[in-house]
Amino acid sequence: MDPNGEVLASLRGVTKRYGAVLALDRVDLDLHAGQVLALLGPNGAGKSTAIGLLLGLLRADAGQASLFGLDPQHLAARRGIGVMLQSAELPDTLSVGELIRLTASYYPAPRSLSETAALAAVEDLLPRRYGRLSGGQQRRVQFALAICGKPRLLFLDEPTVGLDLPVRQQLWATVRALVDDGAAVVLTTHYLEEAERLADRVCVLLRGRIVSDGSVDALRARVVQRSVRCVTSLDVAEVGQWPGVLQATRDNAFLQLRSNHVESVVRRLLAADPALSGLEVQPAGLGEAFTELTNDAAEHPQQEAA
Amino acid sequence: MNRYTLQSAATVPSTMSTRSLAGAYLHEIRAECLRYLRSPGFLLPTLLFPAAFYLMFAVMLGKGQPADAARFLLGSYVTFGVMAPGLFGFGMSLALERDNGLLTLKRALPMPPLAYLLGKMVMAMMMALAIVSVLQLLAVGVAGVHLSAWQSLRLMAVATFGTLPFCALGLLLGTLVKGNGAPAVINLIYLPMAVLSGLWFPLKVLPPVLRDMAVAWPSYHLNALAQTALDFPAGAAWPHVTWLVVFTLVVTALAAWRLRRHG
Known about the structure:
The complex is a heterodimer.
Chain A: E1 7-18, E2 21-32, E3 36-40, H1 47-54, E4 62-67, H2 75-78, E5 81-84, H3 96-104, H4 113-120, H5 135-147, E6 153-157, H6 165-180, E7 184-188, H7 192-198, E8 201-206, E9 209-214, H8 216-221, E10 226-231, H9 236-241, E11 245-251, E12 254-259, H10 262-272, E13 277-282, H11 286-299, H12 301-305
Parallel strand pairs in A: 3-7, 3-8, 5-6, 6-7
Antiparallel strand pairs in A: 1-2, 1-4, 8-9, 10-12, 10-13, 11-12
Chain B: H1 18-37, H2 40-60, H3 68-100, H4 102-108, H5 113-141, H6 149-162, H7 164-176, H8 182-196, H9 208-213, H10 218-229, H11 238-262
Helix pairs in contact in B: 1-5, 2-3, 2-5, 3-5, 3-6, 3-7, 3-8, 3-10, 5-6, 6-10, 7-11, 10-11
């Protein structure tokens, strides 16, 4: 069992199909207190289905979804969650303050209006009608609605789409503060930078299966490729022939390599050119890790089906 | 295997006190009423159509008709008027909210599900009360109808509660159609039903087949109750009330079944 904290919600052997399409295939997933879990995967991988099951919007065909140990369709269970969905049109004619008060009224011990407004940076929007706000402002209001009930578990579905960088960073800071305060977060995002900044744990879904589950570092470590950069007079074509070198390019004085056996390549580089300088070895980014993971699985579908 | 072993440490969120639960209901009702009061696109047609029709048929074309005609038409147009907030307020908004994600969000949030329905119901009843008030003012002030306080009160009660069967029908329609197709579908049911119930022309001008079918429509029975409230002889009230109550319950049950099944 994960030592990170109590389990707030889980999927156990959950299968969900839509007609002939298998959206989730025997998925097990635990959400822990105080943890930010990023759920990544290409469109149609099953992210929305997983979230829908945890929120009680969908029923599993097999297996069990639970929220605070209850059926997610149980109202008492949902009083512990906050939700920001990707596409929800709120009533245009209500003011921001009215929307926050209404949503807060569903919860047993909500935050005050001023606290919610401050956390979501919507103080100046409170008297304005929702329909007259810009897309980014509406997104902040939706975030305010997600946190107004002081939830222990926060579901954020693509929270920062359409937000400019300062607002995005502010939202990240707020999420981190809430997590430090003991809340757990489930995040789906297309921005890998967002997952990298926020997530303690990254879960990659592909065709209804979890293909990777671990820390951001663990996911990066799955990628054996690293890049090497140095100033050297060695011939780029020759280095490109070395075993372990996948790609070699020259950028003025710099030689740039991608390698899956970086230690031996670096040893040979240093041996071949004693004057070599400015050596840098960079790990793969989350983006590369993600691409490699999804490509791998796409290239070996028979393994997946097995 | 005990599937909840791992979760045993997680505390279930605290329960709501009756008072804060009542607060959730009140907030939902208030929000639902406010949002429609601020939507002229819904408010004005719902209020003005029955008023304009009444003025046209009872006042402008009603000259030289027997004095009772304007009173009779009051009952008919009140019935016609209060069908709309139920069908449109309930049906169209549900169809739109199923489409635009609002219902999904509300179902994910810990909103008491009945608060959502109650909010729309109260909104429809308040609209019905506004419609019957406007029509009565026109009847008394412009058409010269004499209404006793008792008649007026009974008509208001019939109108306010009479919108409920149409809320149920709107709810069912809202679960069947989605999004922008809803207004057309609802109008296709609303207007023929009004005509076939004898709200626009006397039933006796309709072909016998359609005339015999009139008892099937809820608006026929509501019209009978409205006429009874205005002291026109329409037989005993209880068969009409029973029919409307049964209709409301059956249609609501169907809608609830569809909502649970398909969301």
